[in-house]
Design goal:
single chain, mainly alpha, about 70% helix
Length: about 100
């Protein structure tokens, strides 16, 4: 396991300590949990950006986000992002399903 050191603004540290107290656990555990949540959210937003820019298929964007194809489709639906599904996308998805 690696260690990372960083400086935090007072307000962020105050909010972090509030979470530590609410979670009733140690700071390292809370930090790992929040970091995992933040990374997951970043991956989803990045995948959505690539999808909207037509740089990733639905399948590939779901893979980048680290979620299932069906979960990604639900995110698209909930955010009202129009489908950009081509014949090539279908072929790629079928190839992925065949693996």
């Amino acid at each position: 396991m690696a260690q990372i050191a960083t400086r935090l603004k007072d307000k962020i540290l105050e909010d972090f300590n509030l979470i530590v107290n609410e979670e009733k656990t140690d700071r390292a555990t809370v930090l790992r949990k929040l970091l995992a949540i933040g990374i997951s959210q970043w991956k989803l937003e990045h995948a959505l950006k690539l999808y909207k820019e037509q740089k990733a298929t639905t399948w590939k964007a779901a893979e980048i986000a680290g979620i299932s194809l069906y979960e990604f489709i639900d995110v698209l639906k909930n955010r009202r992002i129009p489908a950009q599904y081509t014949t090539e996308d279908l072929e790629e998805d079928l190839r992925e399903l065949a693996k």
